């Protein structure tokens, strides 16, 4: 079709929307491989379906799907075989009080464990991605990151530096030893800052038990990372696993919500994953407006929930 020359300057081709918009005239022109159904967003292999209320993210694999009553822009229908819970940076370095860890991060641990159990029981994997660097990672770390993780504004106290020892009760290594803590104390080598295998890099408290037992039982999977995001760059160990296992929908929680959690989530969004943040298993040491920024942007890019919104549906999924 030929358009009048006077309209050519007004014409804007929008291939992602699969139409040609020329001034006041809209001409439908579907692209090859794009469904004609206006409720389908995507292509024949990778798509969402807009429901009368909410969204279907199953990509046509509706058998044993779970409908989650998401408060905003929901409900959301997910496929358990294509969904996972991602726990980010709930490590001693960020949470343990002997290392000046965040009490708000420690406070969300019971809720996090409850949701971990619900995901496992509903047949969905739990993924742990934490700082866990090698010497190679540290040698190739950009200056900005080295400075950002320095304790005294020198490079000698950044990644890989020795963190000394901590004294904790033998009966509960998740807390600091004080004059009022019961029983004998033990001294633990905190290890090199955020390096693989170090005590400071392992999950805090009961989360360490959950992670090790989950990995042993095959319900959980652990991935080291060397940036704020567990999904940065061309590929990461976690992204490779997601691709190998056809995972498309990701629930996120951990610390800090505005840094490593949002960094992982937004990189997942850029790479085409469905992204959902679980607010009540996320925390931060940043001012409140940082969390508000995350909540605002995640609501545009995906969905926000609390664990209490989705737990009943996950429990029902286990029963069926």
TrEMBL record:
The keyword Nucleus does not apply. CDD domains: cysteine_hydrolases. Keywords: Hydrolase, Signal. Residues 83-291 form the Isochorismatase-like domain. Coiled coil: none annotated. Pfam families: Isochorismatase (PF00857). Gene3D superfamilies: Isochorismatase-like. Belongs to the isochorismatase family. PANTHER family: FAMILY HYDROLASE, PUTATIVE (AFU_ORTHOLOGUE AFUA_2G08700)-RELATED (PTHR43540:SF9), PEROXYUREIDOACRYLATE/UREIDOACRYLATE AMIDOHYDROLASE-RELATED (PTHR43540). This is Isochorismatase-like protein.
